[in-house]
């Protein structure tokens, strides 16, 4: 339509076809809300980016129905301009939508689009390549590559599978991480440079990160046994892994990362660039159609002592640092105490956490398929009754 206000960009391959399955409901809801749009099915990320840029030039608002990959790339294209980005989750992990409070249900997601509330967010940039969520390397590079190559497993369960496969063959690497000029060397698993909180289908690897604070959260995971790493993975879904001694969080505006062997840097589920990498932010560069931050449900670790850590560190006050130490130590003791009974009984309970996370992801995926199938059945019944 020549007078379309929205360009609906649909990635047919997103989420193993999930975006296409939701498309009829999305189009129906947009019609109900009186949203004028035209639709383009993308043939690849580059095609989607070109279509979004052309739409912005023509005064249309690009709305991406896909996973984090295409959403991140289109967001990068629009960054620095005046055209907002709309998103309708249609991928496997949908982590960006999760963090900004946009649900996967088509009716609810379109209602947010129609409400047209806008907020400005920061956009990350690594070696000149833009991203919205989290840029990571090391173990994460291997896990991302495996997840992207996997075809038989769909939905969030693919991330658990990829983590297990990557861990089996992993050998520690030495990373050099410089944050605002302060250099540290870390031998271990991974470095994550976060603009947002979550990746990997609900892993809150940077629970204190904010999309609009002008800073990057840098999370490093140092060397430890593979068993310890494996049993600690479920903590990432809750954001409580930051209490573990091998995990360190720093914060800054300019981050440089290199390693003792080649690694690709991944972000938004896609390969972004390679190491060495310099990562910065474009503050408030993108206008996003999304709920106000205060209307979004809190991250899983809301209320932990670490939630106030970055703010207190920025104060640079000795008294503030003393205020950090005691509650953080108490939180760590509580965390350790919950693990003691498992250790006392042969660590039987520690043998199953990743399996439990995998089962939860599989259950969520099964319920989503049932919801989608139910909507399809009701739609067909409605047409038959008419």
The major beta sheet can be summarized as: 11 strands, antiparallel
What is the alpha-carbon Rg in Å? 21 Å
The beta-strand count equals 15
The span between the termini is: 28 Å
Order of helices and strands: EHEHEHEHHEEEHHEEEHEEEEEHHH
User: Which class best fits the helix and strand makeup?
Assistant: alpha+beta
The number of helical elements comes to 11
In round numbers, the mean pLDDT is: 81
Amount of beta strand:
25-35%
Q: Which shape, going by the Cα principal axes?
A: globular
Parts with pLDDT < 50 across at least 5 consecutive residues:
302-355
The level of helicity is 40-55%
Features:
single chain; 386 residues; alpha+beta; eleven-stranded antiparallel β-sheet; four-stranded parallel β-sheet; 25% strand; globular
Task: Give your account of this protein's structure.
This protein has 386 residues and is of the alpha+beta class. It has eleven helices and 15 strands. It has helices spanning 18-32, 45-57, 68-78, 95-100, 106-115, 139-149, 157-169, 226-238, 309-315, 318-344, 353-385; strands at residues 6-10, 37-41, 61-66, 86-89, 118-126, 129-131, 134-138, 173-179, 182-194, 216-222, 247-252, 255-259, 264-267, 270-274, 277-289. A hairpin with a 2-residue loop joins β8 and β9. α8 (226-238) packs across α11 and α9 runs antiparallel to α10.
Briefly say what this structure is:
This protein is of the alpha+beta class.
Write the layout of secondary structure elements.
Blueprint: E1 6-10, H1 18-32, E2 37-41, H2 45-57, E3 61-66, H3 68-78, E4 86-89, H4 95-100, H5 106-115, E5 118-126, E6 129-131, E7 134-138, H6 139-149, H7 157-169, E8 173-179, E9 182-194, E10 216-222, H8 226-238, E11 247-252, E12 255-259, E13 264-267, E14 270-274, E15 277-289, H9 309-315, H10 318-344, H11 353-385
């Amino acid at each position: 339509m020549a007078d379309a206000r929205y360009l609906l960009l649909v990635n047919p391959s997103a989420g193993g076809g999930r975006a296409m399955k939701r498309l009829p409901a999305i189009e129906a809801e947009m019609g109900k809300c009186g949203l004028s749009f035209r639709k383009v099915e993308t043939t690849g990320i580059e095609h989607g980016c070109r279509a979004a840029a052309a739409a912005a030039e023509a005064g249309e608002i690009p709305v991406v129905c896909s996973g984090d990959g295409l959403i991140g790339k289109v967001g990068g294209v629009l960054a620095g301009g005046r055209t907002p980005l709309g998103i309708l989750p249609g991928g496997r992990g949908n982590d960006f939508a999760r963090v900004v409070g946009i649900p996967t249900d088509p009716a609810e997601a379109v209602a947010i689009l129609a409400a047209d509330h806008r907020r400005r967010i920061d956009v990350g940039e690594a070696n000149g390549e833009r991203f919205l969520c989290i840029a990571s390397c090391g173990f994460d590079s291997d896990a991302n590559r495996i997840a992207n190559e996997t075809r038989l497993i769909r939905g969030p369960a693919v991330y658990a599978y990829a983590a297990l496969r990557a861990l089996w063959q992993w050998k520690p690497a030495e990373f050099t991480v410089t944050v605002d000029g302060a250099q540290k060397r870390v031998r271990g698993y991974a470095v994550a440079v976060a603009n947002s909180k979550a990746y990997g289908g609900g892993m809150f690897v940077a629970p204190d990160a904010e999309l609009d604070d002008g800073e990057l959260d840098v999370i490093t995971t140092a060397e430890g046994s593979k068993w310890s790493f494996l049993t600690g993975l479920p903590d990432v879904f809750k954001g409580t892994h930051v209490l573990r001694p091998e995990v360190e969080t720093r914060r800054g505006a300019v981050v440089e990362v290199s390693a003792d062997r080649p690694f690709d840097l991944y972000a938004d589920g896609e390969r972004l660039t390679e190491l060495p990498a310099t990562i910065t932010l474009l503050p408030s560069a993108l206008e996003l159609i999304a709920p106000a931050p205060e209307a979004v449900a809190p991250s899983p670790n809301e209320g932990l002592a670490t939630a106030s850590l970055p703010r207190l560190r920025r104060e640079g006050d000795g008294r503030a640092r003393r205020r950090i130490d005691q509650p953080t130590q108490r939180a760590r003791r509580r965390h350790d105490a919950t693990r003691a009974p498992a250790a006392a009984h042969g660590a039987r309970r520690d043998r199953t956490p990743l399996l439990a996370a995998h089962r939860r992801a599989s259950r969520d995926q099964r319920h989503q398929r049932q919801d989608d199938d139910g909507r399809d059945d009701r739609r067909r019944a409605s047409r038959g009754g008419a």
